[in-house]
Amino acid sequence: MSTQGIFKGWLNKKAYGFIKIPDDSSDIFLHITHATNPLELSAGCQVEFEIDTSEKKRQAVNAKLIAPPHYPPLKDNGSSRVPYNNSHEQLQDSEQITDETLESEEIEELDTDAANNALLSEISRWKREAKSEDNTRYFWHVREVDQISQGEKCFVIGRKGSGKTAICEHFSALSSHDVFSEKLSFKNFPFNELYDHKNAKYTKPNQFITIWKYLIYSSICRLMLKDNSVDLEIREQLSKIYDDKAPLSRRIGRWVSKDFGFSLFGLSLKITRSEDTHEPTNWIKNVDYLEDLLLNHVSESKYYILFDELDEDYRDIVAEEQFEQYTALITSLFKAVQDIRSIFGGGGAKILPIVFLRDDIYDLVKDSDKNKWGDFRVDLNWDVEKIKRLIAFRISRAIDQDCKNILPFDAAWGRVFGARRIGVGSNRQKSKISTFEFICRSTLIRPRDFVLYLQNCAQHAIESNVQIGPTVVRYVDKAFSNYLRQELTDELFAILPDISNTFDTISQLRKWNFSIPEFEQAYQQRVEQGFIQERNVKFVLQILFLFSVIGNSPRGGRYVFRYQNREARLNYNERVVVHRGLFKALQIL
């Protein structure tokens, strides 16, 4: 026969609690092993159970949740949340209970008194994509931002998830009487619009410099319409041809049209009083008109032109010709930005084009001028201490969106995860590490990894009505592993179209530490079976190492991954290890 009551909570660090039954002066003892799902039960929730008297004392069995604590309590002649120190009549002393102190990690999460639902709720709403995030609240102002804003750096290079888009969004949102910005996003952009507009006067890979300069100059003209320090007559003239709200792809099509060229030519005659009265024969001449116009009439305001999501066409490259065309386009962009910096760098004008690009794409660019770009490049590299400062900032802002005094990392982390440690290895009771260290081992030490991990932990804790602790972290670790595999698949597909089958090859080895000959043998079998087309296994290993899917395992119990050391190179004489974050997704553990 089923009975209902109010669960009073698990005793701190104990494997049992008590249930209050309305109109009954005695509480019912409940051992954790007799709860259907102990993680669902917290103080004040309504439970349904059966009473077992076979052990000469009443105890609850088959206890299950029927209503969480915030539901109206059952009538019990007073408060249902009875203090723990009300003694249980049937229990004479604690020695009658076996396994009194629970050694497993799970019981640590059953004490939910310290859970801050408002904080967990806010963290659960964090966004992995910076474009969707509340950047006013959560943007962390790193040193690199100051270098970019002062014009010292203009090439922002970093891996996916390292914060490029967050910085881009920050600059895109800037607006004041003397600061203007426009983001040129190439997400879902028809790149053929650019490929079709080469300047035949330039040799490869410089044939796209002119179209990039045209885009930048035209975007500056659009921003000048908002700048009250620009002469009113100039703004009125510019508004006749640049005051449009069309998407970027359509704007480019219009800007390179013959009719637009005539309009711009007429504008140039009016504004610059140019002595060149030859009508333009194509859009290339327009670049000269705009350059003269800006040199003579742009104000001393800051104009940021932001290039983001340039990897869109890179994902679809399947042929050598496409690759050469794409890398030429990117190379031309870097050279166009350099050229504009040299043209406008000496005067009062502050025209600041900024390029955000994935590091693996940047590495593919080969050009004699590439070394010179290093002076203007900023690399978004992260280490554990820098990630800690970012997390402390985000948690502090999650607690208070206007927070000025950021909590130290340990205090901030403790507000979400507490001080509990998580068992690792074959003996989890003796070998324990912090939850932060456990999560670190599953990530590539990127902001996006931690935002997603904490977001998922908060969501699961809310759904299960528990604090975030070891069990929640372990539960989320599997979902995170699947996310990391998919993230790497998206990142690698343009280079290794067989990446999914390559991951399957690692799965079939069924171990995380193996020799290169072992991998080569398994890989060759997949090639012979027709699952994989790429036959150069050493190339595949290099790419897997480059993206930290694998690392080296030299003697001494340490591992070498490229995400930890950018200068690391694959050593074919050492064993390799799979990144721990992929273990579950690859079914290694």
UniProtKB/TrEMBL annotation:
<feature type="region of interest" description="Disordered">
    <location>
        <begin position="67"/>
        <end position="97"/>
    </location>
</feature>
<dbReference type="InterPro" id="IPR059206">
    <property type="entry name" value="Sll1717-like"/>
</dbReference>
<dbReference type="GO" id="GO:0003676">
    <property type="term" value="F:nucleic acid binding"/>
</dbReference>
<protein>
    <submittedName>
        <fullName>Cold shock protein, CspA family</fullName>
    </submittedName>
</protein>
<dbReference type="InterPro" id="IPR012340">
    <property type="entry name" value="NA-bd_OB-fold"/>
</dbReference>
<feature type="compositionally biased region" description="Polar residues">
    <location>
        <begin position="77"/>
        <end position="95"/>
    </location>
</feature>
<feature type="domain" description="CSD">
    <location>
        <begin position="2"/>
        <end position="65"/>
    </location>
</feature>
<dbReference type="InterPro" id="IPR002059">
    <property type="entry name" value="CSP_DNA-bd"/>
</dbReference>
<dbReference type="Pfam" id="PF00313">
    <property type="entry name" value="CSD"/>
</dbReference>
<dbReference type="InterPro" id="IPR027417">
    <property type="entry name" value="P-loop_NTPase"/>
</dbReference>
